[in-house]
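Thread: Newbie trying to understand structure tokens

Hi all, I'm a second-year student working on a class project, and my supervisor (Dr. K.) asked me to get a predicted structure for one chain before our next meeting. I've only ever worked with sequences, so writing a 3D structure as a token string is new to me. If someone could post the tokens and maybe explain what I'm looking at, I'd be very grateful. Here's the chain:
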Amino acid sequence: MTTNAITAIKAQAEMHHAYFLGLQLMVSSRKGPEVMEEWMFRLFRRQHLEKFLSSFEKLGLQGESDAVACAKYHVLSNAIGGVAVEYMAENDKKAWVRFRYPRWMYDGPTLCGVPPGVGRGFMRGWYAHNGVSLKNPRLGYVCVSEDLTGEFGFCGYFKEYDHDLSDDERLQYAKGELPPPYDADAQPKPPVNEWSEERLEKASRNYAMEYVRNGLLELSSILGVTETQELGEMSARLIGLQYYPKMAKTLGSNDGTAEDARDFLTSILAGMGDQTTDLPGSAGFEHSGLRIVRGLQGSDRALVLNCWKELWLGCVRSHREMLSLDMQQINDEKLVWQVRNLRS
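---
Reply by user tm_fold:
Sure, no problem. This is what the structure looks like when written as tokens:
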């Protein structure tokens, strides 16, 4: 894979990451802490059910005790997504994870803009469900420190108790406990022969993209499709406006004509693995592949696509020229985009 291709993949990872952060801030500021906590619970439960068990074999975790396997899983899976997490095991039944800063989940000032319930939501949604998924009723998660309460960051341990846990016991708190010392040699690493640079970059892109997709779908289960689309479109458009100059510089694109804007879009969409073909005689192009809605159907597909298109409208509107962007859906597999100069 060429350097330009990898650069476009990285650009897509950054755009989708920023979109997820922006959507969190918009929901937090406009809908409040109760919606945020419930949203994060549903989002992380969905992510857990889709990814947790299916990834064990890929990450080489067979044969480990459940507590150790869970801790190593969170180090490995997050590392593939570009998230720094450390692992410390006390024994086969108690293994720690400590997330380091900057936090991917709340990158930059986002950390100050979401309520503490976000942490409770994702711990209930994912961490407290590990024992259920592994069919081990004695396995739980104990949180010793949280991000959004100003402690030393998100940290805790998976523990296998000597009794079955009730639903309320699968997530517990033990504030004040400290993790064992960090041991660089003990950190798990993805199997080298299976995780090339290209595969890692694509995994990082997919990691961010899936949070966007699943985040929109789970938000709609709380707010309904109409309000979710309003928030999803606005936050996407703002992120496109804000991030276009950086993305253009990264990809070597010009802030110029409608044709320059089209060239930027086709360059960055290649980072999704999608296919584009310029339309002769215009600043338009056909677009197929549509990774962002791959596997989605009906109203779910429409919601995600309608929100996602606003990322690129924002990028186009960020140009010095007064430009806009139209999208026409030809069928489930093909779109036609047209950049327009509003002064013409």
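A couple of things are worth pointing out once you decode it. The first helix runs from residue 3 to 31. The two ends are 40 Å apart (CA to CA). Feel free to ask follow-ups in this thread.
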